[in-house]
Design goal:
Strand content: 25-35%
Bound molecules: flavin-adenine dinucleotide
Order of helices and strands: EHEEHEEEEHEEEEHEEEEHHEEEHHHHH
Radius of gyration: 22 Å
Largest sheet: 8 strands, mixed
CATH topology of one domain: FAD/NAD(P)-binding domain
CATH superfamily of one domain: FAD/NAD(P)-binding domain
Shape: globular
CATH architecture of one domain: 3-Layer(bba) Sandwich
Length: 391
């Protein structure tokens, strides 16, 4: 039996960021089911430069992107990103860096260790059962548990507090070397090659490119491996200037794609990152948000533990909803609509995108909805309806 103040389940960006921002005297244990931090890669790492700077992530962990091409079956939008540049993150190195930020704290990382279950004791503490690949079963007693297990929602699900998400984004990615691919250009593609989802091409800062496809389940019956296979055989990649060699690695992952849920604090069990559905509803971009939320939650926990004041966690939950609720609710509405788009809808949509300012496009990708953009969307929606009635 080991004792700690805070047990963190999951060593992804959310869990690692909670650990790095807890006060140094708070004892915390991270249990992580994988044998290495950051591997296998389960995400594609697209994000934004301004956020990496704000989160103080050193520039050696990303590739800057200032050209974005969006393709559908017959339309194309080519955007020179002026102000809100994008980045592609080096996932294994970034996550190891995030882990190193808590090296000096009172924290331990148990790798190859899976959280199985937990029971609340009469003194309010939790005893959690862990299975480690070498030593077998072990127990950890803690006052707080952070569910940072991603879409698994391992802790909340084990306690019967939430169901696993019923709607999921599922993605597969091929990573390989393509020498002539420009390292500042990202591609997004939509339409028949990847219905009910989208595809991407992201260059990394270590001379590979990541070609990925993601779909939403159960909105489609297709699985991403088959979608990728069809894509490879379709000839569509020639249009993108991408050629898959015989030698590539496969990354794949799952994330929740459900409605915003403001309840993240369940007494002394708190969810963060993908277990709280943190990825943006339009693009499924969650890494910077998982880091931000992890740090934000650690600040609230520091106050709660130092002052023995549970109200701090309630204040955190209120602030959380205020910060994310509105944009995520609107974004989810849009996500459900576009997941039903057919090839012609996507052609129209990409034509509209080609007329937008680059900042409007990055706002859209960020699921950041300002009043002007909302009004424009409402107007276009109304216009399409009227045109449809007149036909
Ligand atoms: C295909 C795909 C593409 C994506 N592309 C992007 C992108 O381009 N940009 C972006 O910002 N985001 C992207 N995302 C989303 C992003 O990956 C997530 O939002 C982010 O990883 C969430 O971080 P997290 O720490 O909450 O969860 P995770 O990164 O999922 O980390 C949770 C960790 O917990 C571990 N775990 C789970 N259960 C247990 C257990 N019982 N015991 C111990 N450990 C456990 C898991 O092994 C996992 O490593 C993508 C996701 C997918 C699936």
């Amino acid at each position: 039996m080991q004792d700690c103040d805070v047990l963190i389940v999951g060593g992804g960006p959310a869990g690692l960021s909670v650990a790095s921002h807890l006060a140094a005297d708070i004892k915390c244990i991270i249990v992580h089911q994988d044998a290495k931090i950051g591997q296998p890669v389960r995400t594609s790492g697209g994000s934004f430069l301004a956020d990496m700077k704000a989160l103080k992530i050193p520039d050696e962990y990303y590739q800057v992107i200032d050209k974005l091409d969006v393709f559908s079956d017959t339309a194309r939008a080519s955007i020179n990103i002026k102000s809100d540049k994008m980045v592609v993150l080096d996932i294994p190195k970034l996550y190891q860096y995030l882990a190193s930020l808590s090296d000096k704290n009172n924290r331990q990382i148990l790798l190859a260790s899976k959280f199985i279950s937990t029971v609340k004791q009469s003194d309010g503490k939790y005893i959690s059962e862990i299975r480690n690949r070498e030593i077998g079963q072990a127990s950890i007693r803690s006052k707080y548990i952070i569910d940072a297990s991603g879409w698994h929602c391992a802790v909340l699900n084990a306690l019967g507090l939430v169901e696993k998400p019923a709607r999921l984004g599922v993605g597969t990615e091929y990573e390989f070397v393509q020498k002539d691919y420009p390292d500042n250009r990202a591609i997004l593609f939509v339409g028949s090659p990847v219905l009910s989802g989208y595809g991407w091409v992201f260059p990394t800062n270590y001379n590979t490119i990541r070609l990925g496809v993601g779909v939403i389940k159960p909105d489609t019956e297709n699985n991403p491996r088959d979608v990728m296979q069809t894509l490879l055989e379709s000839g569509f990649l020639r249009k993108l200037g991408v050629e898959v060699p015989d030698d590539y690695t496969i990354n794949s992952g799952i994330l929740p794609s459900i409605e915003f849920e403001g309840k993240v604090v369940f007494g002394n069990v708190i969810r963060v990152g993908d277990s709280a559905n943190c990825a943006t509803p339009i693009a499924g971009e969650g890494i910077r948000i998982a880091i931000e939320q992890g740090r934000f939650l650690a600040d609230a926990l520091n106050g709660t533990i130092a002052q023995n004041n549970p109200q701090k966690l309630q204040d955190y939950q209120t602030a959380y909803t205020k910060k994310y609720g509105r944009d995520y609710k609107i974004g989810y509405w849009a996500n459900q609509r576009i997941s039903k788009y057919g090839p012609k809808d996507w052609d129209r949509s990409v034509n509209r995108i080609s007329k937008l300012q680059s900042s409007e496009i990055t706002d859209l990708l960020r699921s950041r909805f300002n009043f002007k953009n909302l009004l424009r969307t409402a107007f276009q929606h109304l216009r399409r309806k009227i045109m449809g009635m007149l036909k």
